[in-house]
Amino acid sequence: MTSNDRLSDHGARDLAGRTVVITGASSGIGWAAALAFARRGAALVLVARRRAPLERLARRCEDLGARALAIEADVTDPERMLAVAEAAQAAFGGIDVWINGAGLSLWGRSPPSRSRTRTA
Ligand SMILES: NC(=O)c1ccc[n+]([C@@H]2O[C@H](COP(=O)([O-])OP(=O)(O)OC[C@H]3O[C@@H](n4cnc5c(N)ncnc54)[C@H](OP(=O)(O)O)[C@@H]3O)[C@@H](O)[C@H]2O)c1
Predict the structure, then answer these.
(1) When comparing pLDDT for 110 and 56, which is higher?
(2) What is the mean pLDDT of residues 22-45?
(3) What radius of gyration, in Å, describes the C-alpha atoms of the chain?
(4) What is the C-alpha to C-alpha distance for residues 3 and 7, in angstroms, rounded to an integer?
(5) What would the pLDDT profile of 38-73 be if each residue is shown by its tens digit?
(6) Is the pLDDT of residue 1 over 60?
(7) Which atom of ligand 1 is closest in space to residue 76's alpha carbon?
(8) 96 close to 19: Cβ distance less than 8 angstroms
């Protein structure tokens, strides 16, 4: 079990019949949210630019009993976003929740301080 798997699970499948679109689903918060929604029975529309991780995530969601659709799209392209909405409608009959998780996340360590105390 990964830390993402532990994020949310009360055992309830209370979102059965609901459709959740998540942009930025190929990693981080979007990935974790998708698994949490999948456990609760929602149908997922998973959106990001990289297809391979999206498809891996779709399979994980399906393993949890959810329906999932992976769509490669860039959120800066309005026509692709319209296509995402239309695909959600066609596959699952509508959209109940849309999570805009796509974004940029930078992590790192600050370099060690070079300051030294000098004594005269
Ligand atoms: N993690 C935190 O603790 C934290 C806290 C506060 C705020 N946030 C903010 O929340 C957002 C997500 O954070 P995260 O940690 O989950 O980041 P992350 O792991 O880097 O994930 C970012 C996601 O956005 C997607 N993405 C980026 N640009 C995109 C674009 N133009 N079109 C479609 N998808 C795009 C990436 O997928 P592709 O590269 O496959 O497109 C990836 O799935 C960021 O804006 C971050 O600054 C994060």
Answers:
(1) 56
(2) 97
(3) 19
(4) 7
(5) 999 999 999 999 999 999 999 999 999 999 999 999
(6) no
(7) 31
(8) yes
Q: What are residue 23's DSSP bridge partners?
A: 47, 100
Give me the domains of the chain, ranges plus CATH numbers: 24-100 (3.40.50.720)
d(CA 83, CA 13): 28
Tokens of 14: 């209370």
Is 74's C-beta closer than 6 angstroms to any atom of ligand 1?
A: yes
d(CA 62, CA 44): 10
In this prediction the pTM is 0.86
Which atom of ligand 1 is found nearest the CA of 75?
32
